[in-house]
């Protein structure tokens, strides 16, 4: 039986790179995004069995519907990459309740809902499935100007560890990746915000990211996606509850 992976936030960035990496590894793809048309267009060149679904990760019913539709097409879904995420940037004392709620509703609650649906699906179909959640460097070290984002990603790590412990005896593995400074559309927005907040040019902000990275370059979405596929694979069969750093050495603990 061919393995099938469910991916959230698959229209761009790490989610899109993950879709390409899983396709190269031979998986069927159940791709989801808040903008399914953009996801369909972004993935049209991926040569793998795939379906695309509109999912708002803040709405558990939409995740359940996408899982059901994917399983109807390919059989039981065996892997999940809970990747959808958002950010915005402000000093901590200027954050509004809406800023806090927006980050937590997508980054933390979205992972919570997606993982719940995935584990229930695995159990119902007798799958020893694997989940990989997208956390962040900001889940290991609190990030200035991203306090609310950091808090939401710390929540992802805590949830990942607890869920991994609860379902290890079911043969279900749950891990997370913690990327560093990844060049994506989200980072492009953050660079512009940070440049304004720190009275720097975008070029100076980007160079600061590179200077903080021992491997000496900006991370790519593909750097992360390859680790996601590894954590989903049998090569990581004895790994669960881990928050794996993929930071180019920015964080090493």
Task: Please outline the helices and strands.
Blueprint (H helix, E strand, L loop, with lengths): L3 E4 L5 H12 L3 E6 L2 H7 L7 E5 L5 H15 L4 E4 L14 H29 L4 E5 L12 H21 L5 E7 L5 H13 L4 H11 L8 H12 L10 E4 L7
Parallel strand pairs: 1-2, 1-4, 2-3, 4-5, 5-6, 6-7
GO biological process, one term: fatty acid elongation
Protein name: SDR family oxidoreductase
GO molecular function, one term: oxidoreductase activity, acting on the CH-OH group of donors, NAD or NADP as acceptor
Describe what this molecule looks like in 3D.
This protein is globular. It has a single domain (4-182, 220-246), classed as Rossmann fold. 47% of the residues lie in helices and 14% in strands. Helix 6 (185-197) packs across helix 7 (202-212). The chain has a seven-stranded parallel β-sheet, with helices on both faces. It has helices at 13-24, 36-42, 60-74, 97-125, 147-167, 185-197, 202-212, 221-232; strands spanning 4-7, 28-33, 50-54, 79-82, 130-134, 173-179, 243-246. The protein is α/β, with parallel strands linked by helices. Strand 5 (130-134), helix 5 (147-167) and strand 6 form a beta-alpha-beta unit.
């Amino acid at each position: 039986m061919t393995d099938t992976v469910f991916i959230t936030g698959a229209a761009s960035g790490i989610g899109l790179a993950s879709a390409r990496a899983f396709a190269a590894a031979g998986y069927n793809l159940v791709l989801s995004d808040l903008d399914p048309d953009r996801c369909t267009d972004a993935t049209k060149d991926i040569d793998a069995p795939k379906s695309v679904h509109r999912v708002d990760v803040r709405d558990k019913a939409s995740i359940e519907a996408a899982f059901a539709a994917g399983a109807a097409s390919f059989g039981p879904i065996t892997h999940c990459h809970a990747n959808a995420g958002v950010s915005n940037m402000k000093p901590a004392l200027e954050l509004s309740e809406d800023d806090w709620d927006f980050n937590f509703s997508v980054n933390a609650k979205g992972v919570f809902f997606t993982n719940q649906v995935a584990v229930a699906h695995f159990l119902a179909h007798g799958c020893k499935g694997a989940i990989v959640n997208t956390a962040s460097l900001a889940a290991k070290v609190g990030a200035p100007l991203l306090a609310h984002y950091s808090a939401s990603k710390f929540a992802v790590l805590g949830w990942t560890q607890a869920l991994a412990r609860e379902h290890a005896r079911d043969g279900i593995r749950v891990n997370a990746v913690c990327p560093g400074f990844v060049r994506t559309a989200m980072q492009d927005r953050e660079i512009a915000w940070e440049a304004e907040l720190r009275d720097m040019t975008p070029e100076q902000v980007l160079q600061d990211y590179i200077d903080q990275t021992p491997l000496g370059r900006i991370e790519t979405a593909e750097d992360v996606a390859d680790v996601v596929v590894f954590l989903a694979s049998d090569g990581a069969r004895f790994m669960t509850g881990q928050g794996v750093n993929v930071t180019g050495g920015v964080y090493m603990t």
